[in-house]
Amino acid sequence: MKFAFTSLFATLAYTLVAVAQPPLQTTINFDDRYCVGSTSLQTTACSTGENGLITRGFPTFGSLPTFPAIAGSQFVEGFNSTSCGACWEVFDPNTGRSVFLTLVNTAPTGFTLCTDTLLALTGFNRTNVPNSIPVEARAIPAADCGL
Ligand SMILES: *[C@@H]1O[C@H](CO)[C@@H](O)[C@H](O)[C@H]1NC(C)=O
Ligand SMILES: *[C@@H]1O[C@H](CO)[C@@H](O)[C@H](O)[C@H]1NC(C)=O
C-alpha cells in the first residue's frame, strides 16, 4: 500500500508541475499544404512507425479530428517522433483567440499551420499577413484534440 500511495503521489505532483508550466513564447507561420484534407500522412514525418499517425488509424490530414487545425512543428524531431499526434494550444495575445492543433510533421521553427486556420486565429488576411507571428503555446492532453 505504501509503495502504491507514494507512486500515486509522485504522479499527481508531476501532473501539477506540468499543468503549472508557463506557456512557451514561439512563432507561427503558414502553408496551404496543411489545408488539403486528402493529403496522405505518408508525406510527413508522422507516417508509420510505432508513433506514426497512419499506424494509429489516420491515413490523411482530413481524417484527423481537429483538421484543418493541424500543424508541422519544431517539436516533431523527425520520423516516428513521440510528438506525432501531440495536441498543442496556440494562443494569439493580439486577438485573444486560441486554437488546438494536432502535430503531424516537422517544421524549422515554432508551428506551421494551414493558412486559413492561421488567418482565423490572428485576424490577418492574405494581403497583410506577416511571415512569422509571435504566439504563446502549451502542450495539452492529446484527448483535447480527439486522439
Ligand atoms: C519508434 O519509436 C518507438 C519508441 O517511441 C520505438 O519503440 C520504435 O522501435 C521506433 N521505430 C519504429 C519503426 O516504430
Ligand atoms: C486586409 O486587411 C487590411 C487591414 O485591415 C485591409 O486594409 C485590406 O483591405 C484587407 N484586404 C483584403 C483582401 O481583404
UniProtKB/TrEMBL annotation:
UniProt keyword terms in alphabetical order: Secreted, Signal
Keyword Signal: yes
UniProt superkingdom: Eukaryota
One GO cellular component term noted in the UniProt record for this chain: extracellular region
Residues annotated as signal peptide: 1-20
Keyword NAD: no
Subcellular location: Secreted
Family (UniProt): Belongs to the cerato-platanin family.
Protein name: Cerato-platanin
